[in-house]
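2024-03-11 09:14:02 INFO receiving multi-entity request
2024-03-11 09:14:02 INFO entity count = two
2024-03-11 09:14:03 INFO echoing inputs for audit
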Amino acid sequence: MAGKTLYDKLWDDHLVKQRDDGSALIYIDRQLLHEVTSPQAFEGLRLAGRKPWRIDANLATPDHNVPTTDRDKGIDGIVDPVSRTQVETLDKNCDEFGILEFKIKDQRQGIVHVIGPEQGATLPGMSIVCGDSHTSTHGAFGCLAHGIGTSEVEHVLATQCLVQKKMKNMLVKVNGKLGRGVTGKDVVLAIIGKIGTAGGTGYAIEFGGEAIRGLSMEGRMTICNMAIEAGARVGMVAVDDTTIEYVKGRPFSPIGEQWDTAVAYWRTLHSDDNAVFDKVVELDGAAIKPQVSWGTSPEMVADVDGQVPDPAKEEDPIRREGIVRALKYMGLQPNQAITDIQLDRVFIGSCTNSRIEDLREAAAVVKGRKVAASLKQAMVVPGSGLVKAQAEQEGLDKIFIEAGLEWRDPGCSMCLAMNADKLGQGEHCASTSNRNFEGRQGFGGRTHLVSPAMAAAAAVTGHFVDVRELLN
Amino acid sequence: MRAFTQHQGIVAPMDRSNVDTDMIIPKQFLKSIKRTGFGPNLFDELRYLDEGKPDQDSSQRPLNPDFVLNQARYKDASVLLARANFGCGSSREHAPWALEDYGFRVIIAPSFADIFYNNCFKNGLLPIVLEEEQVDRLFREAEATEGYQLTVDLEAQTVTTPSGESFSFEVDNFRRHCLLNGLDDIGVTLEDAEQIRAYEDARRKTAPWLFNSVNQ
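2024-03-11 09:21:47 INFO inference complete, emitting structure
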């Protein structure tokens, strides 16, 4: 008999009821809430006269709308009244229903996908949901983590379950060792470049292979974070020593006897040797170079020493039209060298790349250098108040500030520009975020997705450059 | 939720693949704490020439004459014909809210992003997957014939062209059932409350750490 995949195991362990029609009820261990996708869910509960099923399974924080300056003012520091109302509404809802929330002035506040793991609120083997597609991040811990819509947020609040149909299994195996200066971000961009933004649709993707095993939890989170950019709602990495080491001693992690029982269970959270996947994709990790996105979809990526594609060479008419449209929006020429793309701004942050390791990688590149005079702005936005504090303890803030980068307060910031941090029309940005869609970082803004090290290299040169040339 | 059984309506062809949810409803409109009122900002950056802001009167804004929904012949469209991977990107349910608020009831495409597809069913909006060749044909017919309409029957799972030709489509039984009857799926799940409690009791014994309170 074929063994089970990690996804099969997580599915089986959370199955409450398999219905005859193929749908199933899956139990949810943890729901993370933020201000943008939860107000209508709480309102729905109130209108139906329902109560949350298990209050202490929820953890909330405002992140999308929060400003990254003047945070000592708290909510009063939010200039936009519509944004302010949304954050106030989250506070009110959490207070009313008794849900734990790290409010705007709490040092534990941060991007939901940073604070869950940081607090140990994300534990291996859990099923986790959040009204945010980047919930796949938590799969790095061997979790079954789904991004959901607001109706489902309400459904999970009311029932602690999600109605799901089992997905197919895909293994993305990255063999070999990554080269120096090549990070989890480059790996995931290379994967998306290979399988496309719909390549993972309908699948739960497990990322495995020597290159993934060699990554830190931060690197694995970056990869799982962008599983949705490959079309997969769920991305996962098997549990190993790296996972368990990371989880140990976190505020919400189990202790004592519970810890030992938990670890014994967590050690089983990997695909069996004889597990069968519906699809397997393999990449040579040693061959992956630093990646830069040139277009308006995360699959539009190139090696840093490569070129912007020429639509004339694309045979498929829909793809050709897509390239033409992207080049027009991005203001780029066919066959232009990636290193010739001049930048206006640099953004280091987001749920993809704002953890301590990301900041260390960026700081190592800018140390002793200066932000290029041609740039309008280069900013670093840590993922949480605790990441910020740790970075300051390590002196990273000083390195950034001395180099001319702005050192901000935690939040989603310019990843989606719901707060005051945004691109101007036509501006090119080297960004460590996850989406380069039209207008994502501001009306008419042009996003290039890169790793923190590549963004830092771009900050000190004013254009893209192979970060490996700057590393000693 | 509004039930969906049959629908006949004018088809608007939106000829581009990978239409993402940022395109469907840009982020500045996600600040609303309501479920309604997103229609005027559907496809905001494609539809208008200026930058859209929340709480503005969109009827006074300059329209992009090249955008399909701004053409007079598609003014009353309620069936959106789209290309592959429609709705990719974020989980924002504001995307189906905006489509529904604008007046769409059906979206036909060769493929959809998972989360968006799922969100549609919660809002009385029917996403239909047809073969690439069938979608190509509908694009040609809709572009060639002004006032081109399609009839969609969820019960029979068919899309019928004006010439009477029918294409059948697949839809998950549970979603179909909920949509046909306009059911609140929370109510359906709560019928299994006992089973959920039994699962919790069993799980609490084998994995007690999952039930530690975060309210420490």
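2024-03-11 09:21:48 INFO post-check: The CA atoms of residues 227 and 235 of chain A lie 5 Å apart.
2024-03-11 09:21:48 INFO post-check: Residues 293-467 of chain A form a domain with the Aconitase; domain 3 fold (CATH 3.30.499.10).
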